[in-house]
Amino acid sequence: MDTQEFEQLVAEEFPNAVPEKFRDLIQNVAFLVEDEPSRALRREEHLAAHETLLGHYRGIPATARGDQYGVGATLPDTITLFRLPIEEEARELEHSYILQNIRMLPEETVRKVIRDTIWHEVAHHFGYDEHQVRAKEQKRRR
């Protein structure tokens, strides 16, 4: 899948990933797509050689923004989705589905991973740390 097709899926899946009551609360956040995490980001996140990121939030969480937030020039927070790791995760998920005799088309699987990644990174925007996000994801999957 090329970058343009992937970006289109991200745009289409955003409303499916984030409940409506939270969408209007997301302010000053730019959504980006990159092929994969940079070496600098991998070092910053202390990733081992076999680890990767599907997405990354960078900014000031909504819960930490004070009264002075946005006064003057304020660059937007960013949520970056990484196309190649998401596609790889989708391929692994498809293999898992085949073993469980679950039928999903490849694009549907990519869409699911995109939705889950958007949800995860938006949770960071709302102030949840990695441990809290993973706990919420477990509840969400039940």
Q: Can you offer a commentary on this structure?
A:
The chain is mainly α and 142 residues long. The chain has one domain: Zincin-like (2-Layer Sandwich), CATH 3.30.2010. The protein has six helices and three strands, in the order ααβαββααα. It has helices at residues 3-17, 20-23, 39-44, 83-99, 106-125, 130-141; strands at residues 29-34, 55-58, 77-82. It has a three-stranded mixed sheet. Helix 1 (3-17) packs across helix 5 (106-125). The chain is globular and about 55 Å long. The mean pLDDT is 90.
The count of helical stretches stands at: 6
Helices and strands, in order, run as HHEHEEHHH
Uncertain regions spanning at least 5 consecutive residues:
none
- Main β-sheet, spatial strand arrangement: 1-3-2
Please outline the helices and strands.
Blueprint: H1 3-17, H2 20-23, E1 29-34, H3 39-44, E2 55-58, E3 77-82, H4 83-99, H5 106-125, H6 130-141
Parallel strand pairs: 1-3
Antiparallel strand pairs: 2-3
Helix pairs in contact: 1-5, 4-5
